[in-house]
Amino acid sequence: MNFIIRWLVTAVAVGVAVWLVPGIEVIGGTEAWVAIAIFGLILSLINISIKPIMQVLSLPITVITLGIFYLVVNTLMLYVAAWLANGIFQAGVDIATFGSAFVASIVISIVSGIMNAIVGKD
């Protein structure tokens, strides 16, 4: 049940990022909400499995930059999720530039934090 809530929160956050950030577009032959749900699923799986490893490996740089590098790790996870979603399902999001992915990672982090506070998840 926790994973389903995490998936829904991530999908809503991705939908907000697609709506707000220029340079992030939904692609694929399916409807937009299906592509966002697929991308949200893959991003949730990456956040559970790969992201903690990347955070530990980048810990020295994160400490030196006072936590700013954590946003770069989030951006790289967006790129990995987009690559996997587009490669496996031919649906997901298209990221135009690193700047748009960086802003999208900030938007997704903020919206996820707000949504997790609403549903009561840490």
UniProtKB/TrEMBL annotation:
Q: Which organism is it from?
A: Enteroscipio rubneri
PANTHER family, per database record: SLR0284 PROTEIN
Membrane-crossing segments per the record: 33-50, 57-83, 95-119
Q: Which UniProt keywords apply?
A: Membrane, Transmembrane, Transmembrane helix
Name of the featured protein: Phage holin family protein
- Name the InterPro entries on file: Phage_holin_4_2
Top-level taxonomy? Bacteria, Bacillati, Actinomycetota, Coriobacteriia, Eggerthellales
